[in-house]
Amino acid sequence: MSTFTAGPEIERLVQLLGKLPGLGPRSARRAVLHLVRKRDELLGPLADAMQIARDQVVICEQCGNIDTCQPCTVCRDPRRDDTTIVVVESVGDLWALERAGAMKARYHVLGGTLSPLDGIGPKELNLDRLVARVADTGAKEVVLAVNATIDGQTTAHYITDLLANLPVKVSRLAHGVPVGGELDYLDEGTLSAAMRQRTAM
Known about the structure:
It is built from eight helices and seven strands.
């Protein structure tokens, strides 16, 4: 069985791309070949964009989103509803809800879900900041837009308990989000329907 052989620079590029979600060794090799063939159109601009991202992208101190400004563009938007905070697991989930245009609220990125088997407890998530935001801003509703997985629902219940002593309504996404489904893979219509039909915890 033959093995993939190329110069060390190309092999390194294949290995690095192969670490991206959804890209295995074969897909990474195809991507590298395409990038090299289109080096002026794709490879150069991609390298420049990645350099800029490495130097300028920061994590928003308010919500946990990623952007090139502090606070992020979403937090700076004056058209947002300051009384509602939508809690998501990841930045990818925030982007999915923004694509759907489900609601113009504030966001809070947890950075994952509670998962004792993986060593992820409350201290590993952005939970203290969430409680402080709810208390400081006087938010009236917290929407738990977490994935419909066991870890996601466990996290939702934990957050509900954390906020129990604050005068805030806690709701969660309703119909449209399948059990075991992840927000980033759902279509905009499904996400919009789920947001509109959210229910109290």
